[in-house]
Automatic annotation (TrEMBL):
Protein name, entry field: Collagen-like protein
Assigned keywords, A-Z: Membrane, Transmembrane, Transmembrane helix
Transmembrane segments: 12-31
InterPro entries documented for this protein: Collagen
Region (Disordered): 40-86
Keyword Translocase: no
Superkingdom of this protein's organism: Bacteria
Amino acid sequence: MKATAWSNSFYWVLRIFLGVAAALIVVAVIYPPQLVRGPAGATGAPGADGQDGQKGDKGQPGKDGDHGSKGNTGATGAKGSFWGGK
């Protein structure tokens, strides 16, 4: 089986490609990437204030208070309120 011109050129291109890939791998192993950080910059200005939040739900009503004691007898001699003077 005789090699054609196309197969010869294909193998040459393949060899060049593999050689370049091997060279890149060697360079990557010898010179690994290093991260160099500079000094920290100044702090920025504070942002604008946000909007107020929504109001919460209304609370439950409290318990009714105890009834007070009846008052003392007034000048007319009536005891209690006007409507229930017993």
